[in-house]
Amino acid sequence: MNTPKRQGNRMNSITVKAACLFVLLASAIPAHAAEYLLFYLGGQSNMDGTGALDEFDNTPDERILRVTRSNTLEVATEPLNEAQWESIGWRHRQGISDMRVLFDYQRPTADGRIVIGGSDYPYYANDALSSGNNKPVIELLTGSLFTTFPQLEGLRIDHAWGGTMGFTLDFEPSVGVMGEHKNLFYGVAYNGEGVGLGQTAGRIISELIAGESSELTKLPVVNHKNPYLGPRSLRVVFARLYRWYLTRSPTRTVG
Questions:
Q1: Contact, 238 vs 169, CB < 8 A?
Q2: How far is Cα 33 from Cα 100, in angstroms, rounded to an integer?
Q3: Which domains are assigned to the chain?
Q4: pTM for the whole structure
Q5: pLDDT tens digit sequence for 146-178
Q6: Rounded to the nearest 10 degrees, what angle do helices 7-27 and 194-209 cross at?
């Protein structure tokens, strides 16, 4: 199995999108508002004050400390030929997922591969970041792919990668403003749904900066205070107990 050859390009793409979001938000700041500070917090960025973004990061707001890290991994197959696509009956190339609590999600790519992710969402002690290389989960995903599509048994796995997500105890994000002068705007903890929620958070932040009131700024996620997650040193115990609870039956579904 190869390490992801395209991971650098993928990360560059994420960086470009993040920069575009930042420019969009910055364009909404009134000309007189030079005193505003805006933090882009996403992916593997520092969400709990353990790194050194700048001097402000050493004293994070209480709400940011209520975010923990969970990790997800994905694999991509070699391109399928037409006969292989026909054998599995996946004609219209929709994205699909199963109904397990720790579910898989699968979708085809433009060059004819299948990308599958999920199956497990490991937590590393002390909120450690994902290295992108968790062999047991990668093997779990590969096995799940061939369980779903036994016709593809033996198909080569070309790429495998992973990353870190921000999660909260109540599975709710928080978007808003903080700080003594109410000039630090943030959006954190999209709980695995950052592609859609990140864009909505950007719109909320731009309206908060502009001092506007709308349906978006009245959403319950605005300045939402997430529950306390417990001591960081004990979170690995809670995470493993919760995983055992979710997976105690291999057929357990969200229904």
A1: no
A2: 48
A3: 7-67+169-224 (no CATH), 71-163 (3.30.9.10)
A4: 0.66
A5: 999 999 999 999 999 988 888 888 989 999 998
A6: 20
